[in-house]
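Q: Okay, next protein. This is Flagella cluster protein from Halorhabdus utahensis. I've checked the sequence twice, so it should be correct. Can you predict the 3D structure?
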Amino acid sequence: MEELDVEDGFDVHDYRHGLKLLKEDRETMRLENREGFACPACSRPFERLLVSEKRMHTFNSPPGPFCLVRTAEQLLVLTHSK
């Protein structure tokens, strides 16, 4: 299982083959993990990924466990199954 590489930032295009775009606006993107990529925080497969370039972001609490990963430019929120 391939883990998302966030060491030098996160580029969604590197993983486009396994992530389905659900919603996108100017500064945020929501994706579904169709390839079983592993979370860079806990190494478990994740279900959904929110990528935000906003300095501040408010979102509803996702159901089940989630991980937060911060790169220099982005906040990544990865949700997992219960």
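A: Here is a summary of the prediction. The radius of gyration is 12 Å. DSSP finds no helices and five strands in the chain.
Q: Noted. On to the next one.
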